[in-house]
Structures are given as structure tokens and as C-alpha cells.
Amino acid sequence: MNLVLREDVLKELGYEKLKFLGYTEDKHRWRKEYDIDLADLTKHAANKLRDLLLSVSHLPRVSARVKDVERWIAVLADPEAVRCRRIKDFAPMLKQFLKEAPKHWVYEIRADSEVYQPYYVAAVAYHPPVKRDGYTSRAFVTMDLYWEELGMFRKANETFYAEHCEDLNVARALSERGYSIESLDTLASYTANTQKYREIHNKIGLQFVAVGVAEEEKPRKDSWYSRVSKIRLDRDGVGSRVVVDLLNEDDKEKEDKSRPPSGSFWKTETCDHDGAETDDDNDLNDKIDSLVQIGHACVVGEDNIICAQTGLAGSSILQKNVLLAGQVGISGHLTIHDNAVVYAQSGVGGDVAPGAVISGSPAFDTRDWLRAVTAFPKLPDLLKTMRQLEKRVQMLEDALRKES
To answer: Residue 239 domain-assigned?
Structure first.
């Protein structure tokens, strides 16, 4: 959503009032207009720009610019309440909508399994029309999707043309393409299927001995016809060694394999009302030291403290008021709930309950951990004492047997 300030507006306001938009004195000397991407503005900056434009509303075409800014303020307040007017506006509206979605995920019901499939939205981009060889291509918006399947990352994208989004709000446009953001139903379905996968994925690839007849279906390329072959599994009473493999890739699936998304799209910096920089991907009041690694699709809640040399693997969720001391490792795909504390050099491999204080690797309750580490240096002496007691007991038992 771009807004152009004309020369008369720039002269009337002056560069001092527009500094918070990146407009400098050098630009003021030679530029006849200044292009502003409203998607780069925070709510504070958008409100300040609207007030400035209202102060020069007597100038031509300024009232239309005021409406554009007010429209973006409405998007920031509630992305679902505003309908898209132009395909060009859909990209920033979609980004703002997904920025508020948990973990920047969208869900789709997979036709082959009838379960909710979550996708991480790694990028949203607008592609303008391109003229080439007397032909002009249509403008469109792409949404890059990543998901993890059997330990591998895959990538796809969804394309929106004007008929897919104009005169619709973002939620409706996504719904008509089969996508939705997280709800109680989608979260429950995803949680249940994740638990089911964790229970069975280690069994994939186990070998066993099979007898009888197996069928192998070999579809022909670019044809509806497939050939079924029968294979005898045992010979002379001896079965064949069989392994179950769920991977069945064609050339396109192999090409779809991808590296994990970087997450940099959601870390773009925007300017607020006083010129300070804010990070779109983190909530307010987080304290994050240097040398901290935060993996893809992680969520960091409000008022968290993450100390140096801490690492969060992908899809880790930190709720509010979480403290991670130095050199903590988080294994990923887990949730650390509100007010939890993890002591230094701890390794967390599962969900952490609200208010829990844990230590160690693997981490467990700090009170138990303190008792354990207190006893640990004494283990050699305890072992020596146990052996001496065993010898004394053995001597007493031998003496009793002789007397009897």
C-alpha cells in the first residue's frame, strides 16, 4: 500500500516533520515527490502521518491520501475488518494478518488424509505486471509455504490473482483457497497427529521376515494405466527380509525438498513514532543477549529473558515471563509455559509446566537436581562403603552357615 507525497505537500510540511519517515534534508532539496510504503509503518507512525496530512488537507488530493492512511490504520487494528481493493494492497494486508497468527502458520485440510496440515508462511510478495514481447502478464501475490515431512523440509507456494482477493478480507480470501489460521479444532487435530507420529516414526524402517505373496504396483509415467506384479516372498520355507519404507518420491517431490526457512521475513524492522526501530517478530519487553540462536517457526512471548549462548530449535514456543539462563538448549517442537525458569547449561527435551524451575540435562525439577548434584561427588565413597558392607554381610552369612 504505497502513498505518494507530492511536491506541494513536502514543501508545506518540511523535512523536519517527515524525518520519522526517512525523509532527509538532502532529499528535500531535489525530490519532487516522496513514495511511502504504508506497510513499513507502525501504528504510531501511521497516526502521526495522518495528523500531518490533516494539517495540510487544504492542498489538492491530500484528502484521498488521508483516507489511504486511515485504511492502513484500520488494517493494523483489525486485518479481518478491511476488504482488499487492489491486488497490490493484498500483500501487505496478508502479511499483517499472518503476523498476528500463532507461529505464522496457516492450516489446510489435506485431501489424501483428511487431517489439518500446518504450513509455515516464510514470505509474502507482490509481483507487478510485466510487459514482454507485446504481452503484459497479470499482477499476482505469492505466499511461500514450508512444512516438515518425515524429517525433511518441503516448499510450495500459493498464488493469488485479483479474482482471488479483491473485494474480500484476508481471512475470506485464504478460506476460499482452503486455508485458515489456528483455531481450537486445527490445534487439536495437529496436536493429536503430532503425538501419533512421535509414537510410530521410530518404527519406520524396522525389518521383519515375511512369507506369502506380495503385490507391487508400478504406475506408468504420464498414463492412467499401472501394472501390478506379484512377488513370492518365501522359498523352500524360508521367508524374505522385508522393510517398510513410507518414502515414495517422484522427480517433482525430490525437487521440492528444501532447506529450513530462515524466518528473516518476519524480522523486518519498521519505524515507530519517534524514529526508534522495532522488531516485528518479537513481542514487547523481551531481553535477548548476544550469541542466541532462535530457529525457524519459533514463538517468543512477552517479557522473556534469554541469556547468552542459548539455542532454540525449530517450532519452540516460549510463553510469557520465561527465563532461559546461559547456554540452555531447547530441542524444539515443545512449549515452555508462563513463568518457567530454566537454569544455566540445562537441556530441555519436553514441555515445561507453568511456573516450573528446572535444571540439568535432561532438565528436571531444580530441588531434585540440587539433591542429585550434591550426592554426585560422594558416589565413589558411597560405592566403597557399599562394597565394604557387602563383604561384612557375606562374612557374617558364612559364619552363620558354619555354626549351623
So the answer is: yes
Rg, Å, the chain Cα set: 31
Domain coverage including residue 290: 282-373
Find out whether the peptide bond into 362 is cis, omega within 30 degrees of 0: yes
For residue 279, what pLDDT band results from cuts at 50, 70 and 90? Answer: very low
Neighbours of 79 (CB within 10 A): 21
CB burial readout 282-294, b (16+ within 10 A) else e: beeebebeeebeb
Q: For the chain, how many structural domains are there in total?
A: 4
What percentage of the chain has pLDDT greater than the value 70?
Answer: 83
- Residue 62, in any domain of the structure: yes
Residue 255 lies in a domain: no
User: Could you tell me the sign of the dihedral formed by the alpha carbons of 73, 74, 76, 77, in that order?
Assistant: positive
3-class DSSP assignment, residue 259: coil
| β partners of residue 118 | 107
Is 276 contained in some domain?
no
Lowest mean pLDDT among 36-40, 202-206, 363-367: 202-206
CB-based contact 340:303 (threshold 8 Å): no
CA-based angle 127:130:132, to the nearest 5?
A: 150
**Contact in structure between 88 and 177 (CB atoms under 8 Å):** no
Q: Please give the average per-residue pLDDT across 137-152, as a whole number.
A: 85
